[in-house]
Amino acid sequence: MTLLALKQLGVSLGNRSVLEGADLSIGSGELVGLIGPNGIGKTTLMRAALGLLPATGYSSLAAMSAAERARTVAWMPQDRTIAWPISVEALVMLGRLPHRPLGLAPASVDRAAVKKALAAVDLEGFEHRRATRLSGGERTRALIARALAQETPLVMADEPTAGLDPAHQISAMEGFAGLARAGGAVLLSIHDLGLAARHCTRLVLLGEGRVMADGPPASVLTTDHLARIFNIEAFFQETPEGPVYQSLRVLGP
Amino acid sequence: MRVALWLSPLVLGLFLASLVIGPATIGPGESLVALVGEPGTPLALVMQEIRLPRALLAVLVGGSLGLAGAALQGYLRNPLAEPGLLGISGSAALGAVLAIQTGLASIMPLGLPLAALTGALVGVVLISLLAGTRGGSLSLILAGIAISALASALVSLVLNLSPSPFATSEIVFWMMGSLADRSMEHVWLALPFIVVGMTMLLALGRPLDALTLGEDAAEALGQRLLRVRVLLILGAALVVGASTAVAGTIGFVGLVVPHVLRPLVGAMPGRLLPASALGGAAMVLLADILVRVILPEADLKLGVVTAIIGAPLFLHLIYQTRRELE
Prior knowledge:
A: alpha/beta
C-alpha cells in the first residue's frame, strides 16, 4: 500500500529553486532514509510533502484535509524547542490530539498509546518529569515518543537520531524498523550514513536540487555518489555483521 | 479543571464582597436583599445602580485581561506577552482621550467608551494589515509595538496641545483605569464584545497546546494556524478593546495572572485559558475592593493598585524562576 506519493514536487524559496521535480513513492514496510549534504533540501522536501510549504506538483499528504493528514502522518520537526515546562506525559499526549474528541479527557486508549510510546524510547519513569528539564538526547527521545503516540501509518522525522547516544541511536532506528515491519512506513532525514546503511530498507539521495538516487543502501552509497554529492571517500562493505559504512576522508576541491 | 474548582468559589466570594463593601455602611445581608428587592429605595438604588455594575465590570474586565494575556502568551510562546502587546489598549486609550478632549465624552453618556471602541477597531484593522495573515509571531509582536508606540505618541500629543487643564487632568486620571461611577449601560455596552471575544479565545485551547511543539508540529497535528491567528487577534481585540473602553488601561493583570497560575495547570497553555480568566476576575475584584478599603476618600485608581500588587508579585516570580535555573 502506498502511504506517500510525490509527483514532480517543486519548491522555490524567493527566486531560488530549492527542489525540482521530485518523485517519490513510499509503501508500507519501508524505512526510508533521506540523505544529502547540508542545505540540499531534505527538510524542504519533507515540509513540502506535508503541505507545510507552498509547492508545485502533487503530494498525497498535502492533498488531504488537516484532520485527515494528522491521522495519516506524524511529523517530528528538527526544532526541538518545547515552549512550556509541561510534563513528559503531557508532551507525549499531544500526539493523541488528532484522535481525541474535543473537550474530553484522554481515554484509556490514549493513555495506552502514550505508555507504549514512552516504553519504545526507553523513557518509562520519566512521565512526571518536566519536558524542559530533560537533557538534549532525552528531549529528542520524548519528541520521538510524541510522534509515535500519534499512531499513524506513516512517520516522518527530521534527523531523529541527531544528539542521541549510540545505544539510543540504534534503538531508535530499530524502533522505526519495527514500525515498518508492522505494516507502517517511516521517512527520516539522516546524516549518519552508517546508521542509514544498516537500518534503512531504502535510501533517497538528494543532490543538485533533485532526487539523485533512490534504492537499497548499496545502490545509493556508491563511490561515485559519495564523491559527487558528499565530496568524500568511504569504506562500505557487506560483512558477517551486516553492512558497515564509515566515512574516511574529504576529497580535494 | 481542579484549579477552576477552587477559583470559581473565590471569584464568587470576592464578587459578593465587592457588592457589600462600600462607603455606605450597611449590613451585608441587608445589602444583598436590597440588590434583588424592589427598586426605588435608596439602598436598592445604591446596590442595583452603583455596586452591581461595578462588581460585574470587575469580573468582565478582569476575566478579559487574564484570558487575553494567557492566550497571547500561549500563541507567542512567551511568558512576557500581555494584552497591551497588540496595541489594542493603546489605540482604545487614544479614542477615549480624543473623546475627552473634544468634549464628546461630556455630550453623550456613552461617548467615551464608544470612542474607545472605535479606537480599538482602528487598532485591530491596522495590526491585521501590518502583521498580515501569514508570517510568524515576530511580525505580530513588531506590529503591536509599532501601533502601541504610535497611539501613545498621539495621546502625548493631545495632552501636549490640550488648552484645558481640566481635560488634561481628566485624561490622566482616566488612563490610570477605574471602575468607579460606572453604570449598567457600561456593562451592556461591553458585555456582547467580551462574550464574543472570550468565546473565540477559549476555543484556542487545543491549538495552543499543540503550539507548545512549535508551529510546524502544531500544523502537522491538524491545527489550522491561520484560523488560530485570526481568532487570537480578533478575540483579544474584542475583550481588550471593550475592557479598556469601560475601565481605562489596567496593567499587570494579563501579565501576572497567567504567570501565577501556570504551575497550577501543569503549564498546559490550553488549561491556562479558563484558569486565567477566573484568576483575572479575582485579581481585579480584589484590587477594586482594596481601592475602596485602603483610601476611601482619595479615589485611588484601580490601575494603580493592580500595578502595585502586580509588580512585586512579578518580581518575586522572576526571582523564583532565576533560582530554579541556577
